[in-house]
């Protein structure tokens, strides 16, 4: 798309990112965990790889972040962690719970600098559900807008079981969407560096593993009746892009009709649960532009993944023009601001003037 064409189709309206990130200090947990746990505290070196994920001051400093948001034309963001993502692979239950409390407290302080623009999602350990619910209640009261548990569950705690039911019930009652973020859970472990060295490893990791774990989780939740038992539960798939989802839902519908036409296991078709209960973020998914008018208009939410290396910052409006410039303004508005506002029950967001 040429520059003139892009400029003609730029959306100058409000942008809200449904998936952006902070960058926690490498020694945050060493400093903030209870003294009895500090010998086991996750520590992260401030090396070259870390600097790639914190190339902007706003990753650590919310005051600077507001300026960087303005540079990208973004007025509000839903925030996820960076380093705490791999802590979903911690198998020491008490340590994981304590680590997430440290992170949640830090994120609450971070968001307090601009509570009308920065909205946090709490990290929740899902081993002990009673403890998980207490932490969700605490974070909800303190101002968090949603909760996140692992995307890839341990085999003994598969999403097809009843282990999570009290959490689903609580999340539904509290109107706290449940986020499942890429690269979280037992298969990834703690502190495992993702450094594919050959194309086969790269593609297997980025596609077979990441999207494969997501598909498995969705199958387990839909086919086991989670959304029949908890019809108002909102589940958000974060950072796996979205253009593969219509294929998956159509395949599930096909096999459901073929195998269970006369003896249905689910009350609705799988794709109907998707439309009612499942949401997803995207940020740089060109094929999705061909799908928005028929798929995902009420379920998919734009994001910029700031400040990670994959981020569309500071060219988010150009990417939106490329992938969504052909859409009617009311449809584009759903994808870049209205869906995320509805899902997280956000307050009115005022445009952020360019302060850069």
Describe this protein's structure:
This protein is of the alpha/beta class and 356 residues long. It is 42% helix and 10% strand. An eight-stranded parallel sheet has the order 1-2-3-4-5-6-7-8, sandwiched between helices. The chain has a single domain, classed as TIM Barrel (Alpha-Beta Barrel). The relative contact order is 0.16. The two termini are 27 Å apart. The chain has helices spanning 3-9, 28-32, 48-52, 62-72, 93-111, 129-142, 165-174, 199-223, 226-229, 245-260, 270-277, 316-324, 329-344, and strands at residues 16-21, 76-80, 118-123, 146-149, 178-181, 235-238, 278-282, 300-302.
Question: Mind sketching the topology for me?
Answer:
Blueprint: H1 3-9, E1 16-21, H2 28-32, H3 48-52, H4 62-72, E2 76-80, H5 93-111, E3 118-123, H6 129-142, E4 146-149, H7 165-174, E5 178-181, H8 199-223, H9 226-229, E6 235-238, H10 245-260, H11 270-277, E7 278-282, E8 300-302, H12 316-324, H13 329-344
Parallel strand pairs: 1-2, 2-3, 3-4, 4-5, 5-6, 6-7, 7-8
Helix pairs in contact: 5-6, 6-7
